[in-house]
User: Which sequence fits this backbone?
């Protein structure tokens, strides 16, 4: 795979737009997990606008696509504006999020074109992607299986079953991206059960691990592009250092931000809307 | 009489899968480090389409589901209590939920039905899977009792692209059916003996006990073996039970918990003439040495107790 070159200012403007749409959607559907959905925005934008994933909006299950699983399902609201913008969904669908008959729930599922699997039950996505990577290799496909996990998700033991298998099977078509926003549901991870040091853990398990500032979109894009291009018999993990609730002062730094919703007034203020 | 030593169902099925893999490149076999003599051949022959995930049943299902999403027909092989209960949430989310949206041909080969790992003790017994798999939508539940019905189940695995749970005894069992039961798969049961007043309805190993008990009873006792729990319609089974006055269900699983007894009770609940019923199964999870028949004796589900219960019910039906 040749590494794509994409104008960083284009990616930055898309990220700002997705972040704004996530807040708008949260206004329509307050049960969406806003803080969890704001931390991975640059990761999703890099994948979908940075030519890192092959896809066909007109044929979402196209065999030649790269597979992408959002294992941290609660943080997947940012997928909706992206899928709408890219033509997987009609723009009118966004408006109806969570309403009767809508395909758009607070956790994306595979009734939505462009969403591969149902996740949100944590710790399953990496195993599914491991199976996909095995299958892709078996079919002699060169496509990648990419999975986005949260850091709190790493508490699930099944994740480590997959970590061991992927390395043993030399699955270099598998890329795990960790949205390392440091906060799980009730507290900072290092106060629940410390998961550090992450990159060292993965390296000991036979993975290639790199860290990146998850909100520096140029670095994110370059790092993921580099990891996707490498075929060296090792699965890869990109640990993206992010801020939970990024861009919202009432959420950033709040150890309970996962379960916080924004008030209509806060949303108006963030979107620069007058009442 | 067939004098050749019977093969364990798992070996028959794995051998059938191996032969099919020679022609069909879209079959993948995954195990949670569980083996069999037949598997030794398969894993030598198909190194690229065999994967041992280690003793990790949760990952077994996750990986199988990922492979199925890539178009493979997957056989996932592990010990019954662990594939059904350690990985229950994966079966529910990966297979049952996703089968609403996707074609997933994942076949769970679950070995060690009931107390077939008798002396290994209660961790290796599996008395819950009939209940658990009945509960989940989109999961076929297959429970063969012998080689011919097992082979029919395997044919069905290839023919129907859906998630399936195959409840397999770990021990070689003698033949109940004299021919492949492919035709009967639509209805999901076999009538082993026609009767007039009382019918024994059983599954898996208990079908052998039912047949043995019926032989000891001079009166015309019906025997029905259920090997597919979720056919498109239960109307054929309902019709087969219709003329009986009494029904005894037999399962090597917890009784009154949603297994075979619940299924049959549901089928006859609205009959115009109320049937008398007895439900034999395991009441409590206890363990002693002594083997399977001894454990069945302790639980009151052995041949002797089946005969006794049948005679009681016959008397009741006459009064």
Assistant:
């Amino acid at each position: 795979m040749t590494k794509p070159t994409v104008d960083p200012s284009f990616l930055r403007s898309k990220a700002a737009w997705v972040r704004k749409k996530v807040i708008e959607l949260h206004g329509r559907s307050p049960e969406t997990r806003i803080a969890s959905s704001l931390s991975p925005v640059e990761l999703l934008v890099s994948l979908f606008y940075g030519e890192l994933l092959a896809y066909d909006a007109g044929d979402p299950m196209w065999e030649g696509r790269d597979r992408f699983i959002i294992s941290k399902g609660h943080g997947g609201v940012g997928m909706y504006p992206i899928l709408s913008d890219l033509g997987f969904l009609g723009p009118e669908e966004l408006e109806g999020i969570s309403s009767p008959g809508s395909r758009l729930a607070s956790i994306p599922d595979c009734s939505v074109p462009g969403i591969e699997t149902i996740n949100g039950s944590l710790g399953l996505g990496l195993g599914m992607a491991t199976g996909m990577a095995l299958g892709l290799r078996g079919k002699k496909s060169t496509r990648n299986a990419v999975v986005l996990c949260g850091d709190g998700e790493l508490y699930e033991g099944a994740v480590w079953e997959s970590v061991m298998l992927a390395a043993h099977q030399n699955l270099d078509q598998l890329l795990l991206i960790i949205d390392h926003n440091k906060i799980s549901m009730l507290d900072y991870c290092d106060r629940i059960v410390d998961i550090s040091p992450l990159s060292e853990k993965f390296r000991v398990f036979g993975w290639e691990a790199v860290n990146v500032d998850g909100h520096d979109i140029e670095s994110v894009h370059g790092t993921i592009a580099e990891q996707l291009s490498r075929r060296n018999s090792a699965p890869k993990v990109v640990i993206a250092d992010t801020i939970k609730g990024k861009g919202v002062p009432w959420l950033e730094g709040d150890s309970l931000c996962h379960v916080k919703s924004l008030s209509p007034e806060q949303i108006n203020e963030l979107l620069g809307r007058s009442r | 009489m067939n004098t050749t030593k019977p093969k364990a169902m798992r070996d028959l099925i794995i051998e059938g899968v191996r032969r099919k893999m020679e022609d069909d490149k879209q079959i993948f076999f995954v195990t949670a480090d569980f083996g069999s003599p037949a598997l030794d051949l398969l894993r030598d022959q198909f190194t690229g389409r065999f994967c041992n995930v280690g003793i990790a049943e949760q990952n077994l299902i996750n990986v199988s589901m990922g492979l199925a999403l890539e178009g493979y027909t997957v056989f996932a092989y592990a010990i019954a209590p662990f594939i059904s209960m350690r990985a229950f949430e994966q079966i529910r989310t990966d297979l049952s939920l996703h089968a609403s949206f996707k074609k997933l041909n994942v076949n769970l080969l679950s070995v060690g039905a009931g107390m077939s790992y008798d002396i290994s003790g209660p961790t290796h017994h599996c008395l819950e899977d009939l209940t658990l798999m009945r509960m989940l939508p989109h999961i076929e539940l297959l429970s063969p009792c012998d080689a011919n019905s097992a082979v029919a189940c395997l044919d069905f695995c290839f023919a129907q692209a859906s998630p399936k749970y195959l409840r397999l005894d770990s021990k070689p069992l003698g033949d109940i059916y004299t021919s492949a039961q492919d035709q009967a798969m639509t209805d999901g049961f076999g009538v082993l003996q026609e009767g007039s007043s009382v019918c024994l309805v059983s599954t898996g190993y208990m079908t052998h006990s039912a047949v043995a008990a019926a032989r000891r009873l001079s009166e015309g006792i019906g025997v029905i073996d259920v090997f597919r729990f979720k056919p498109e319609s239960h109307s054929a089974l309902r019709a087969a039970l219709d003329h009986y006055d009494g029904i005894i269900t037999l399962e090597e699983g917890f009784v009154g918990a949603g297994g075979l007894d619940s299924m049959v009770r549901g089928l006859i609940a609205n009959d115009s003439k109320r049937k008398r019923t007895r439900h034999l199964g395991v009441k409590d999870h206890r363990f002693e040495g002594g083997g399977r028949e001894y454990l069945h004796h302790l639980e009151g589900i052995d041949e002797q107790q089946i005969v006794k219960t049948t005679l009681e019910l016959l008397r009741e039906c006459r009064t």
Notes: The two ends of chain A are 49 Å apart (CA to CA).
